[in-house]
Amino acid sequence: MNRTKRLFIAALFGAIISLTKVLLPFPMDKMFIVVQAVLLAISALFIKKIGATYVGAVDGALTAIWRPALGPFTFAFAFLYGVLVDAFFFLFKVHPNTDNVNRIKIVTAMTLSTAIIGFLSYYITVVLLELLPMEPGLAAPIIVMGSISGAIAGYAAAYLWNKHLKNVLL
After folding, report:
1. CB of 108 within 8 A of CB of 39?
2. pTM for this predicted structure
């Protein structure tokens, strides 16, 4: 895939993710990140090596502009989420050039990356730096729903790839 197509996919997916974050109020944007997770997984399959990282960087930059109060953290966590997705795809050997991608590997990769980024973002901003108020009643649902959303997104991304996207020529 040439550079222009990679940049187009990263910009498009990053913009879509950013819009979903900006339009949903806190904490709903943290609990239901399935759109972000699906697009990160598909970008990792389309762009290969660091596709999710590209998309995470675009998403982080755009969302930081809309929410400047926590802009550096917004960018860092979006970028790190992309890095985690790419890292777990590499560790679990998810290769889009085979007939079908392994659904279990993608679900596992997305669940782990989503759970890790959910925990890290909560711990760093609420516990470590005390930038946001600690509400124990919100912490568990955010992490649990985030992990469930990651698993659903992994399943959806694998299904979309295997049924509809693997033969798309870019």
Report:
1. no
2. 0.91
